[in-house]
């Protein structure tokens, strides 16, 4: 395993991408990899508010921390609604590993998910930075690595494509946890698995530092 931080971040990651998935096939492969799609149902905000009461115990607490493994619970405010629907489906279907989230999502129908997400996306807030992990000196390395992420996650981590998540302002420890899960296969996604596979721990920390430092997402209030 090589370190992208130590050996030329962007050039190395571009080489890996070309070797693993091919730039010419990137768009079609990205479509094939996204096996879960947004739910084509109109959500009801009032019903979603009632369903989301169980979510507020973690996601509406600023800086709330998952016990094991240890990372900050992700912010949902300002996140793309289509992505939230896809994420909940992934927990429901087992493509994402987290016992609590899987238990919560397992009982949700497609309409429930549409309603919950309608409520989440109706909540307004002030864009904020996330909690920055580890060594802030890794910012520049993370900024260079993040150039490869921009096609899906947007410049600076603000995604303009609704089915892909914005990363700007997310807590760094959560970003790092997600990347490690893609790397180990605990989260299944062909594109993210290929991207995360060559990343060293230092690379992941650098990406987490950069994205967490960009103001965008915020914690939902109760």
Description:
The protein has 222 residues and is mainly α. The protein has one domain: Cytochrome c-like domain (Cytochrome Bc1 Complex, Chain D, domain 2, Orthogonal Bundle), CATH 1.10.760. It contains 12 helices and 2 strands. The protein has helices spanning 9-20, 26-33, 45-51, 56-59, 81-93, 99-106, 110-122, 139-145, 150-153, 172-184, 190-196, 201-212; strands at 65-66, 71-72. A two-stranded antiparallel ribbon has the order 1-2. A hairpin with a 4-residue loop joins strand 1 and strand 2. Helix 3 (45-51) crosses helix 7, helix 5 (81-93) crosses helix 6 and helix 5 (81-93) runs antiparallel to helix 7. It is globular and about 45 Å long.
Which descriptors would you attach to this protein?
222 residues, mainly alpha, Cytochrome Bc1 Complex, Chain D, domain 2, 2 strands, 2% strand, globular, disordered N terminus
Q: What is the structure about, briefly put?
A:
By secondary structure, the chain is mainly α.
Structural class: mainly alpha
> Given the C-alpha coordinates, what overall shape results?
globular
Largest sheet: 2 strands, antiparallel
CATH superfamily: Cytochrome c-like domain
Order of helices and strands: HHHHEEHHHHHHHH
In round numbers, the mean pLDDT is: 87
Cα Rg: 17 Å
Strand content: under 5%
Strand neighbour order, sheet with most strands: 1-2
CATH class, anyone? Mainly Alpha
Q: How far do the termini sit from each other? A: 44 Å
Q: Give the oligomer, counting copies of the same chain as homo and different chains as hetero.
A: single chain
The CATH topology turns out to be Cytochrome Bc1 Complex, Chain D, domain 2
User: How large is the count of helical segments?
Assistant: 12
In total, how many domains does the architecture comprise? Answer: 1
Total number of beta strands: 2
CATH architecture: Orthogonal Bundle
Low-pLDDT residue spans: 1-34
Q: Percentage of helical residues?
A: 40-55%
């Amino acid at each position: 395993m090589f370190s992208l931080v130590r050996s030329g971040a962007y050039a190395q990651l571009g080489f890996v991408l070309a070797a693993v998935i091919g730039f010419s096939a990137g768009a079609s492969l990205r479509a094939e990899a996204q096996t879960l799609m947004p739910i084509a149902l109109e959500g009801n905000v009032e019903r979603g508010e009632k369903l989301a009461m169980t979510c507020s115990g973690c996601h509406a607490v600023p800086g709330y921390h998952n016990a094991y493994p240890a990372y900050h619970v992700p912010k949902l405010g300002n996140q793309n609604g289509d992505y939230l629907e896809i994420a909940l489906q992934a927990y429901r279907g087992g493509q994402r590993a987290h016992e609590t989230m899987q238990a919560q999502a397992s009982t949700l129908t497609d309409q429930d998910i549409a309603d919950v997400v309608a409520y989440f996306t109706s909540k307004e807030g002030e864009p904020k930075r996330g909690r920055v992990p580890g060594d802030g000196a890794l910012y520049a390395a993370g900024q260079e690595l993040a150039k490869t992420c921009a096609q899906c996650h947007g410049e600076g981590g603000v995604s303009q494509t609704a089915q892909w998540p914005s990363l700007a302002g997310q807590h760094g420890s959560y970003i790092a946890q997600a990347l490690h899960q893609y790397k180990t296969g605990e989260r299944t996604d062909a594109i993210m698995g290929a991207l995360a596979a060559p990343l060293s721990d230092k690379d992941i920390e650098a990406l987490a530092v950069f994205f967490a430092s960009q103001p965008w997402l915020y914690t939902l209030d109760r």
